[in-house]
Design goal:
The chain is about 40% helix and about 15% strand. It has helices spanning about 20-30, 40-50, 60-70, 105-115, 120-130, 145-155, 175-190, and strands at about 10, 35-40, 75-80, 100-105, 135-140, 160.
Length: about 200
């Protein structure tokens, strides 16, 4: 399987900022990528609070997410239950283009930094680290405590890319979504994916 056809793991934790994941999913599907989607147990609750919509059971999620992002047929979407540690993406022999955890909670950061993998999201991230594959973490927290910073440093030293959800203004954003898209674009840049319409610095 060529690099272009390898799946991308998009993982969503219970951190605030669920809109980042939604925009990333939209752009990846529009660009015909294969997306393996994991929502953590905590993300179900935060999604309902932030977006006002309940996430359905995994069996019907692909249709649900396509409706949410307005992409009916493009790309390929595979949805996983947060506790399905037997899924292909939990194995080191299952190849991917990389994994993006967006948004990434400090609880998830702490578990990954400590080498713990109690669910599918954590196990898959741990696999990407041990296999030397691209793992991109988009923490959404402020302020960072010293513990947060040390955990992020540990993960950076282990090979993860840390892309905080901090937008820029040089692209002259006109809306909140413009600010969201900047962060999404910078996160996907770490996988050499350029599918977000963004006015880049020149």
């Amino acid at each position: 399987m060529s690099g272009a056809s390898l799946p991308i793991v998009l993982a969503v934790t219970g951190a605030s900022g669920q809109i980042y994941a939604l925009q990333a999913l939209k752009y990846l599907l529009q660009s015909e990528y294969i997306v393996e989607l994991i929502f953590s147990k905590g993300a179900y609750t935060v999604w309902r609070e932030e977006m006002g919509v309940k996430i359905p059971a995994v069996a019907t999620q692909a249709e649900f997410w396509r409706q949410q992002v307005g992409v009916e047929t493009a790309g390929k979407l595979i949805c996983h239950h947060w506790n399905d540690v037997g899924a292909g993406i939990a194995s080191g022999s299952y190849r991917t283009r990389g994994m993006v955890v967006m948004p990434c909670s400090m609880g998830t950061v702490a578990k990954l930094a400590g080498g713990m993998s109690g669910d599918l999201l954590e196990r898959t991230a741990d696999v990407h680290l041990k296999e030397g594959r691209r793992l991109v973490l988009v923490p959404r927290e402020t302020p960072f405590s010293l513990i947060h910073l040390r955990n992020l440093t540990t993960l950076a030293e282990a090979g993860a890319r840390i892309v905080p959800a901090i937008p820029a203004w040089y692209h002259q954003p006109q809306s909140v979504l413009d600010l969201v898209d900047f962060v999404v674009a910078r996160a996907l840049d770490q996988l050499d994916i350029d599918c977000v319409p963004l006015r880049r610095w020149r």
